[in-house]
Amino acid sequence: MNRPHFAEIARELTEAIASGRYPVGTVLPTELELRDHYRTSRHTVRAALHELQQLGLVSRRKNAGTRVESARPRNEFRPTLASVDDLAQFGAEHLRLMQSTDVIAADRDLAGTLQCAEGTRFLRISSLRIDGGNARTPVGWTDVYIAPDYANVADTAREQPDRLISDLIEERYGHSIAEIQQGIQAVLISEEMAKRLRVEQGTAALEIVRRYLDVEGKSFEVSVSVHPAARFSVAMRLKRSNG
């Protein structure tokens, strides 16, 4: 029996909420209960619940479960990032379609982006990101740079397209995410990238660089993503500290 994709689980839960099986104000089954019901991984369940959260159907709070907030989804994709856990799930709702893997040496420009020495060797995993498996409209293109020692992760990433590469590294090599540093800038899409993303050259886009750090503050992965502006936006919630 094949494991269901997170999008299938999200669709079933959306229909259950719309039908009144889970009325507004009630709490959905726990992640473990859904995992057992769908016979899948907890990560896949989290991705499905995250999808519902992005649609405005549910809210999620630690130790309080997943609460139904609306019976009707909103249409826009506007992720809210408030914690490392939010960002760790950030790409999980988009199917990764791997395009290539190769070992490269960072030139001066790339070394500046990755904050490494020029000539540093990386395994680069290049992928399209597809919203809900809709290959007609790619949400973005992501190049993930990891140490060549992690080459075995590439095969697993191809087999499990709904899991983040950082999660696969953590599972196989024990590098837990302690911090993610993120930078966002506006760019114009190049001719080469325009062909990949099926947009016009010069289209406005967001370039997002994320550095994944372990508990010792060492970077074990850097991702560089390009998203056409019309297909993607980011919302951040900022709170005043108590200090």
UniProtKB/TrEMBL annotation:
<dbReference type="Pfam" id="PF07702">
    <property type="entry name" value="UTRA"/>
</dbReference>
<feature type="domain" description="HTH gntR-type">
    <location>
        <begin position="3"/>
        <end position="71"/>
    </location>
</feature>
<keyword id="KW-0614">Plasmid</keyword>
<dbReference type="Pfam" id="PF00392">
    <property type="entry name" value="GntR"/>
</dbReference>
<dbReference type="InterPro" id="IPR000524">
    <property type="entry name" value="Tscrpt_reg_HTH_GntR"/>
</dbReference>
<keyword id="KW-0804">Transcription</keyword>
<dbReference type="GO" id="GO:0003700">
    <property type="term" value="F:DNA-binding transcription factor activity"/>
</dbReference>
<dbReference type="InterPro" id="IPR036390">
    <property type="entry name" value="WH_DNA-bd_sf"/>
</dbReference>
<dbReference type="InterPro" id="IPR050679">
    <property type="entry name" value="Bact_HTH_transcr_reg"/>
</dbReference>
<protein>
    <submittedName>
        <fullName>Transcriptional regulator</fullName>
    </submittedName>
</protein>
<dbReference type="InterPro" id="IPR028978">
    <property type="entry name" value="Chorismate_lyase_/UTRA_dom_sf"/>
</dbReference>
<dbReference type="InterPro" id="IPR011663">
    <property type="entry name" value="UTRA"/>
</dbReference>
<dbReference type="InterPro" id="IPR036388">
    <property type="entry name" value="WH-like_DNA-bd_sf"/>
</dbReference>
<keyword id="KW-0805">Transcription regulation</keyword>
<keyword id="KW-0238">DNA-binding</keyword>
<dbReference type="GO" id="GO:0045892">
    <property type="term" value="P:negative regulation of DNA-templated transcription"/>
</dbReference>
<dbReference type="GO" id="GO:0003677">
    <property type="term" value="F:DNA binding"/>
</dbReference>
